[in-house]
Structures are given as structure tokens and as C-alpha cells.
Amino acid sequence: MTTPIQSTTPTTALTAPGNVADRAVKRRRVLDILDAAGRDSLLLTTNTALTWYLDGSRMHISLAGDPIAALLVDRSGDHLVTFNNEAGRIAGEELPEGVSLSTVPWYGQLHAAAAGLAIDGNPLVEAAVTTELRAARQQLLPAESARYAALSADAAAAMTEVLTAATPQTTEFQLVSALAARIVAAGAEPLVLLCNGAGRSDFRHPLATHSPIGRRAMVVVCARRNGLVANVTRWVAFDAGSAQELDAEARIAAVEADIFRATVPGAQLNEVFAEIKTAYARHGFGDDQWTLHHQGGPAGYAGRDPRVTADVTDAVVLNQPFTWNPSGPGVKIEDTVLLTDSGLRVLTVDDRWPTTLVEGRRRPLTMRL
Questions:
Q1: On the CB side of 102, how many CA atoms lie within 13 Å of its CA?
Q2: Buried b vs exposed e over 300-328: b needs ≥16 C-beta within 10 Å?
Q3: pTM, whole model, 2 decimals?
Q4: Contact at 8 Å (CB) between 236 and 159?
């Protein structure tokens, strides 16, 4: 059994955006899903769905844990259920206007309690409409786009500030801990932190170690704020780089340029994936390079929403964010971008970072100190 509670007026401003106009659009998109399915209610239970639908509310405690709330969307309104020990913070800081709030004991069954609010006690579940919900999240609304651009700029700036202070003696853990501190200070959560120094450049998902970075290093961060996740990779080096490294950097940027060219409204993601595979071969990385690491895909309220494969047939739409991350031996390039009516706009930008022009677009170089 759930216990309804009254929302109280917070003593400070809400930390979640809760844009009223954007939330109305999102509710209409979910009601369209219900109409198509011939159902009257939908139970949202994942962090991706909750933070999207509630427009940035924080529904987690542990970054690695399940959400501490579930939401029933029905034709009468939006009904959030949380544990009794979480309700005060959510009511005071996270609850958007027009969403009712009920509680269950901290030891209660959250999903069952939320489902029990449905008229028939049997709402549609997320797993039944995964594709439809993903489509509903594709096109960012104006306030979301502005928040995403601000987060992305903060993540890029944090990279610049941390890497310009690095030395060959800096350890991988020191780099990612400094980066984590800046991300948290910006009000975001570092969901992913990776670093490989010169001795570990073969690893494409390199968890940090206590090893000094040496002559060059790659650093990766995926930072979340108000539900949106910005992803960025940067390289730092303390020498001019070998001819082989410089050539590989130029070629991986050319692969990315081909992917960007294929990311246009109406294209299917499996078609973009086919272009990725041929781009590697076209630029001298071989036919199998795409098999050695995932290639990225749409971004937004998940790090990738989803990772693109030959089986993903979603169509690309305007105002959709992406993070493509082509990589090869000792090279990788990654930024968060938004597809606008004037083309792809790179969001993870800091003007202090060195760049080069690739097919008319400024792309990051290795910072050489």
C-alpha cells in the first residue's frame, strides 16, 4: 500500500529543471505510446526513462544502483512512488509541478506499489515499449538542448584544466581523480572515468592504475547532470609524436568525418553503422577494426541510447544528440554533438583546446605540452 504525501514548498530553489512546457510535450509523447498500444497506463522504472520524463530530476542514490522511485503515467496524471526515507528530499528538491507523490516503507516493493496505482493494477511496462520510449527521447527540446550544451562545455573545460596541469610523472589515478573533482564541482556525476598512459595504450576501456602516464595519455569522461550524459575523450602528450601516431590521428579523424557525413535526418542507424565499417577500411585501418570496440551512437539520457549495431534501425532525427567514438590502435576521437537544421554542432567544446580543421569542422588534436 502506498501513502500519499503533500508536496511542501522547498526552502531553496528546486535543483531539477522541471521545465513545464517540455514536460507537457513529453507527457503527450507517452500518451501517444499508450494510444498506439491500446492501454491506459505505463510504469517507468529505469533511470533513463525517469530522468527524461521528469525533465532532469535525480532519481538515484547510488550511481550503480537502481532508481529509488517508480512512476505511473496514466490518463489522469503522473504518479511518483518512492521509499519513505527518500520522500522528503524528492518533495523538496526533485518533484516537478503536477506530479503526485506517494511512499512505501524503505523495505517495501516499489514497482508493485506503483503498478498498484493503475486502475486495473496491470500497467504497460517499459520493456514492452523500449523502442517507442527511445524514439520519444530522440529529439531534444529547447531547454534540454541548452542544458546539454552547458554540461558538455563544462566537461570539455574540465578536461582542458586537468590535462594542461599534467606531467609525465602524473599517475592515471591522479588524472582521473582531478577530473572527477572538477566534474562534481560542476554539479555533475562522473559515470565513467578512463585513463591510459603510454604503457597501456592498447586498452580501449582503460580503468586507471597507479602507473605514471609517461609520454602520452588518453582520458575519457562521461558526465551526467540533470539526467543528460556528456561524453568526451582527449589526448595529452609531452613530445612531438611519432610519424605513425600523427598519421593515425589524422586517419581516425577522417573516419569520424565520414560518420558525421552519414548522420543526417532520415538515415537509419544501421545504415550509419555500415558506413562506419567501410570508413575504417577506406582510411587504412582494415576491415575488422570496427569489431574491436563499440562505435557509439545516439546520446542524451543514456551514455549511448543505444549503442549502434547492424540491428538498430532507428531513424535519425533533427535535434538528436550523438556521441560517435571511432578508435584504432593507440588512437580514439570522441565528442558529444547535436544534429541541428544547420548540421552537426559539437557540444563538448573548449576554445583553449588545440584543434584542426577537418572537412570544415574544428576537431581536437592531441594537446602537446
A1: 22
A2: bbbbbbbbbeeebebebeebbbbbbbbbb
A3: 0.95
A4: no
Q: Which residue has the cell 556525476?
A: 189
pLDDT of residue 1: 66
Nearest to 319 by CA among 352, 341, 302, 350: 341
First to last CA, the chain: 61
CA distance 197 to 208: 9
Checking if the pLDDT of 54 tops 70, the result is yes
Taking the C-alpha atoms of residue 352 and residue 201, their distance in angstroms, rounded to an integer, is 25
Q: 358 Cβ partners below 8 Å, 6+ apart?
A: 253, 254, 256, 257
pLDDT digits (tens, 9 = 90+) for 250-275: 999 999 999 999 999 999 999 999 99
Residue found under cell 566534474:
183
User: Could you give the CA distance from residue 284 to residue 258 in angstroms, rounded to a whole number?
Assistant: 13
Evaluate the CA torsion angle 253, 255, 256, 262 in order and state its sign. positive
Q: Which residues pair with 320 in a beta bridge?
A: 339
> What domains appear along the chain, each with residue ranges and CATH number?
3-137 (3.40.350.10), 142-368 (3.90.230.10)
pLDDT in tens, 277-292: 999 999 999 999 999 9
Whether residue 103 has pLDDT greater than 90? yes
pLDDT over 60 at 13, yes or no: no
Length of the chain counted residue by residue: 369
